[in-house]
Amino acid sequence: QDTIINWLSPINFFLQQADIAQMRAKGTGGWLLKHPLFKQWESGSGRRLWCHGIHIAGKTVLVLMVVNHLSTAGKNDKNIGVTCIYLNHKEADQQPPPKLLAGLWRSLYLTLCPSLEGVLK
């Protein structure tokens, strides 16, 4: 199973999420999940949630918090999958759109279909 998934997509956003989670200082960023604009976006009334700031401002950590929040909120519904692309300007040549889309597929597949048994048969 791992061999097939790694062949289809070498990009593993779960590993990137784990690295980002280690960077987060405990207790930081909780304000975002309580912010009225976030609540509006989460309820479906906002079309997009735009987070901008200078390099190393903590945007990636905030995105991780949102992804974790949405994943937790939807974990009991097997039809909901939450994933995110983490871009790194230092690795731009290794992140062409087809590889990024394959990475999204990988994340969603592993979240929604933890076993490849049916596919392999």
Automatic annotation (TrEMBL):
Query: Domain of life, per the record?
Result: Eukaryota
List residues of the Nephrocystin 3-like N-terminal domain.
27-111
- InterPro entries recorded for this chain? NPHP3-like_N (IPR056884), P-loop_NTPase (IPR027417)
Q: Which UniProt keywords apply?
A: Repeat
Q: What is this protein called?
A: Nephrocystin 3-like N-terminal domain-containing protein
